[in-house]
Write a structure and sequence with these properties.
Fungal N-terminal domain-containing protein
Amino acid sequence: MDAGTALAIVQLSASVLKLGRDIAFEFVGPEGVHKKLKHLNTRLQILNTFLGEVLEQPGSPDKLSTTQFPGSESIAKTLRECKSFLEQYKSLLSETPGRSTTAQRLLLTIGPDASRIDEFHKKIDQHYAELEQWRIGGLSNRIHNLQVL
């Protein structure tokens, strides 16, 4: 993976997180946000933080181009799918601005794409595990390098 790809994934993650937050506050309000959307935004925040750590690896920026980043393609795919889903949801909310909070919640709970948000939860949780193993491996390597010195 090259540095541009790592940076692109971090930027994509930040844009998906912003979109989720915008939907929560612009259309529903902080008190009316459905818990599925709250949970998704929380997961996206944690994923975004993990991804940001990729760019904060010690060493020169050139070293980032050789950093092994587990599941980068699947993370990017998940983020693109999630962004598309949230854009469609935002579009639905925009089309009917007078829709009640209850109706908006129903779109996430029993609407045609209700199970998709659960799929994103599972996929993001899987990415956490991949990134956590990567992070532990990097720490282990740094400890080993210190012991060699």
